[in-house]
Write a structure and sequence with these properties.
52% helix, single chain, 190 residues, alpha/beta
Length: 190
């Protein structure tokens, strides 16, 4: 391996990722984001669900919501209580068609919880169940877009992390909670 060539390719790749995420995130609907923040703050308990890397993004979001002091659980964890009226299920799925995520979303709806869906496909089965859809399209043609050079779903997953972190920062600023208070809630069982 030629180190200089590898460095040049890496720098080009980094630039590509930054350009693609920035361009794609600018398509995010700010009004939908505000509606999402309102629902998060009003929920009795927030539950999250996702599969694969999208699941990791929404689990990271759950951790930050906990740091903010919002009651939050990851669906499927053995300590997760029942979902019901007044609660909010947040799902994250680029395709919006993962069977396990759909099953959890249906259970939430059957138990009168609200459903917010973060997806790249507004016409997906998951989006059709939703009370609120937060669309994060990878490009003009949605999920697995030709507008990205990255491997399938990668751009959506990157956008999900950044979208969720932006939501957390917004809530942190709205409720005027300082980082020290958030840090007090961080686990000490690491």
């Amino acid at each position: 391996m030629d180190r200089e060539e590898a460095k040049t390719i890496f720098e080009d790749s980094l630039g590509q990722v930054l350009t693609e995420t920035g361009s794609a995130l600018r398509r995010t609907d700010g009004d939908d984001a505000v509606r999402f923040i309102e629902r998060l703050r009003a929920a009795g308990t927030v539950y999250v669900a996702g599969a694969g890397r999208s699941g990791l993004a929404v689990q990271s979001f759950a951790m930050r919501l906990m740091h903010l002091g919002l009651p939050t659980h990851v669906a499927g964890d053995v300590t997760t209580p029942s979902i019901g009226p007044g609660d909010l299920m947040v799902t994250c799925s680029g395709s919006g068609s993962k069977r396990t995520v759909l099953a959890l979303a249906r259970t939430a709806k059957e138990n009168d919880a609200a459903l917010a869906v973060v997806t790249a496909d507004s016409g997906s089965p998951l989006a059709r169940l939703a009370d609120l859809v937060l669309l994060l399209p990878e490009g003009e043609d949605g999920y697995n877009s030709a507008d990205t050079e990255q491997f399938m779903g990668t751009l959506f997953e990157q956008m999900s992390y950044l979208f969720f972190d932006s939501v957390v920062l917004t809530i942190q600023r709205l409720i005027d909670i300082d980082q020290a208070e958030m840090e007090e809630r961080h686990t000490n069982l690491e």
